[in-house]
Prior knowledge:
By secondary structure, the chain is α/β, with parallel strands linked by helices. It is built from 10 helices and 9 strands. Helices cover 36% and strands 15% of the residues.
Amino acid sequence: xxxxxxxxxxxxxxxxxxxxxxxxxxxxxxxxxxxxxxxxxxxxxxxxxxxxxxxxxxxxxxxxxxxxxxxxxxxxxxxxxxxxxxxxxxxxxxxxxxxxxxxxxxxxxxxxxxxxxxxxxxxxxxxxxxxxxxxxxxxxxxxxxxxxxxxxxxxxxxxxxxxxxxxxxxxxxxxxxxxxxxxxxxxxxxxxxxxxxxxxxxxxxxxxxxxxxxxxxxxxxxxxxxxxxxxxxxxxxxxxxxxxxxxxxxxxxxxxxxxxxxxxxxxxxxxxxxxxxxxxx
Length: 281
């Protein structure tokens, strides 16, 4: 395996591996840390316990806590802006090198960076779905309804600053008086249009992601520990079908043994170096 400590000054192994090949990209939370959104499993990340789908639908106290915290957190995510890594991948797409991108993130930063062919594997923070009638509304529309039901909550909760997790869950403790709202069409439960832990990614979305991998010659993983199967399956699929797998991530990943090239490196710096080298060829 190449000496990855030389990547920032000698990007040769990565550039040569991707040269002349169509690249599919799989990204995770580690790519968005430079945009101020913390990841779940990075080397310096504190322990996090995301809410499961079963908790959300089965326990009104958990659901109340989630919506109170999300009412704060989604605003921070909405305000986040793409970093050098997101912009580098969008540039590689414009150069015709990246042919498709699958992201496990819900932050829409690839779209904000101008990337056109993006598959949001786990959904996005910007939409809300009714579990009763499947109606979709924007997160902004729901925010207006929640604000009307909880006047002053945002101001009070953010007075001292809050931390926000990758799923837009803000660390707010005083949530017991927060009032939830239901679907105006059918009265059903509203849920962010995000795939929770314990919930399956829709089959058509998975099939579309596999198709992106199959269209490419190489799979590049950026900023994902590949701990959950929703991302790891694409690495296994690529390796099974003889496609090289490149992993750029800080720390160990569950797909390391399948990687053709494994880079323990910063995503923003590495991808920017790659895009600059590709543009100069």
